[in-house]
Amino acid sequence: MFIQVFNGLVNGAFFALLSLGLAVIFGLLRIVNFAHGALYMLGAFVAFALGQALGLGFWPALILAPLLVGALGVALERGLLRRLYGLDPSYNLLLTFGLTLLVQDVIKQVMLSRYAVSSAPYTIPQELVGATNLGFVFFPTYRLFVIVFALVVCLATWFVIERTRVGAVIRAATENPTVTQAFGIDVSRWVTIVFGLGVALAALAGVLAAPIYSVEPYMGSELIIVTFAVVVIGGMGSILGSVVTGFAVGVLVALGSALYPPIANTLVFVLMALVLLLRPNGLFGLPEAK
């Protein structure tokens, strides 16, 4: 049972990072980024490609891949999404869905033509190979690292946005852009930064997932569906809610898989339905997230 809980926390780490990125983007920009799963996959692929082309290992890729994919997110916001602000949200949804299909197909073709594989393994760093004795169970060291590292990143992101001057500027720029602009703050720049941050978090989750699940073009397809459910359960736009619910849902799915595998993923949507019935704004939802 302890093994299942810790495996659930590993999956929860990915749910938390992905839902955190979605919550940052939606909570501050009101954009539903359906391409989030593809950008998660792209983070894993960029880490793999950096290793193949430049011989870079896991640690440099853990920094460079999220930065590169985050920069792509900045370009997408500047070049495409910005043109849709003020229009019906369905336009953003259709655009990001189209981007998902495009990114997945491009990466699929690149992997087949350049590497002659449809799925590629990614090596665990030597420092994290093996298992760690926790006193009551031996657990893979790399998976423990994923849990701790993801938790630190999530809490750091929450702290910056909710408890620092930079976070106050970001919230002001996105919640009341007219007044913020009057104080001489470049609102458009902060909107771009926030979107890039959300994309970078998705890419970071992809790099962390690569040694566990391997790199393949559709690795984010199923995960993103559960991630959207996590965001709804935690509360649309709630950063803390996304982190807490992400880890909790990971454990729930793992325990469900151990007890009765056919209902493991269904449990998430049952929980989502119950939460929406009892608390329409989600467990940690804010009033404006109605």
The level of helicity is over 70%
In CATH's first tier, which class applies? Mainly Alpha
Quantity of strands, as a count: 2
Rg over CA atoms: 19 Å
Q: Strand fraction band?
A: under 5%
Q: Helix segment count?
A: 11
The largest pleated sheet is described as: 2 strands, antiparallel
The total number of structural domains is: 1
- SSE order: HHHHEEHHHHHHH
Average per-residue pLDDT, rounded, comes to: 88
Structural class category: mainly alpha
The residue ranges in which pLDDT falls below 50 over 5 or more consecutive positions are none
Shape: globular
- Kindly report how far apart the N and C termini lie: 37 Å
Instruction: Give the strand order of the largest sheet, numbering strands 1, 2, ... along the chain.
Output: 1-2
- CATH fold annotation: ABC transporter involved in vitamin B12 uptake, BtuC
CATH architecture: Orthogonal Bundle
GO molecular function, one term: transmembrane transporter activity
Subcellular location: Cell membrane
Pfam families: BPD_transp_2 (PF02653)
Family: Belongs to the binding-protein-dependent transport system permease family. LivHM subfamily.
